[in-house]
Design a protein that fits this description.
By secondary structure, the chain is α/β, with parallel strands linked by helices. The strands form two sheets. The chain has a six-stranded parallel β-sheet, with helices on both faces. Strands 7-8-9 form a three-stranded mixed β-sheet. Strand 5, helix 7 and strand 6 form a beta-alpha-beta unit. Helix 13 runs antiparallel to helix 14.
Length: 322
């Protein structure tokens, strides 16, 4: 999977707007009206803030918007421009959004009035983990308005985002990904190009989170059984992750489970349930059974009912210990 493929100025636009619009946009680009270092970030939650901050530090001119003003204050103080509305933010040639779910994305971007006011040739990069169905719908509606759409969910928690070391899962028209690649280079350590259809990136992200949930469940089972015989769970995790199962998933979540350390949450149980449901929905759409997913559906419901909704999703392991 390659990155940083050079493209000429015209190719940045010719796959997303009409020939006449191409000419006008290219003229404005050559005259300097469009600054390709301009970028907007919509959604300033735990991930959106460090992403916007890193773009600012890299020298980009960043516009920010959030439903509430508070999260934008520190970024404005650091040099960002506060957009008056989503439509205002969408005047930037490249717009990143970091929203929580399908509903938030649909309400924010898929209102025809919002996209109708967006300049043709704008590229919207959606970093949210959304359903494959929503990804297809979003791509279609954006195309109808001459707005480019790239799906780019990421792997990495907040500290990884702060370090600019996310793994970016990108799918969409290759020319559009080429255009936004300089921004990906700032927020991530690697861009994985996964296909021409945005939904492909979302499916891979959903599958990754599904496998993490399966790993948390299996770790919880193993640790629970080991503890029942007096084995030190911390030593068990250290042994397993130093030998049979090296890697960040088993080591980080194993430590959380062994220590019963679920706050602050890097990723909440409520969000984990949302992504599990996305995996089950995609599996149903393609008639692929996910037996472990059906088991996990009940585990997540029990964990949330037991008060772990805002805890780290590693807390689903507590259901095994009851």
């Amino acid at each position: 999977m390659t990155i940083n493929t050079p493209v000429n100025r015209l190719s940045r636009f010719d796959t997303i707007v009409s020939p006449c619009q191409n000419l006008n946009r290219l003229r404005r680009f050559n005259e300097g009206e469009i600054r390709m270092s301009d970028v907007a970030v919509i959604g300033l939650g735990a991930m959106g803030r460090p992403i916007a901050r890193n773009l600012l530090r890299a020298g980009h001119e960043v516009t920010v918007w959030n439903r509430s003003d508070g999260p934008a204050d520190e970024l404005v103080a650091a040099g960002a421009r506060r957009a008056a509305s989503v439509s205002d933010a969408l005047q930037a040639p490249v717009v990143f959004s970091v929203l929580s779910n399908d509903q938030a994305v649909a309400q924010t971007f898929l209102d025809p009035g919002v996209l109708a006011d967006t300049p043709a040739g704008t590229v919207h990069v959606n970093l949210a983990t959304v359903s494959t169905r929503l990804a297809r719908r979003a791509a279609e509606i954006h195309a109808e308005h001459g707005v480019g759409y790239v799906a780019a969910p990421v792997f990495g928690r907040v500290p990884v985002a702060e370090a600019g070391a996310l793994n970016v899962l990108a799918a969409g028209a290759p020319a559009l990904i080429d255009r936004v690649q300089p921004f990906f280079n700032v927020i991530g350590s690697r861009t994985w190009r996964l296909g021409d259809q945005p939904e492909q990136a979302n499916l891979v992200k959903i599958l990754g989170n599904y496998l993490i949930a399966c790993s948390i469940q299996s770790l919880g089972e193993a640790i629970s059984l080991a503890e029942s015989t007096g084995v030190d769970s911390g030593h068990l995790v250290e042994l397993l992750t130093s030998t049979l199962f090296p890697g960040p998933v088993y080591s980080s979540y194993g430590a959380l489970i062994a220590e019963r350390r679920y706050r602050p949450a890097g990723f909440t149980t409520i969000l984990g349930r949302k992504d599990l449901h996305l995996a089950l929905a995609a599996a149903q759409e393609h008639d692929v059974p996910l037996p472990m997913g059906e088991l996990l559906r009940g585990v997540f419901e029990q964990a949330i009912a037991a008060g772990h909704g805002e805890d780290d999703w590693a807390s689903i392991a507590q259901q095994q210990r009851r």
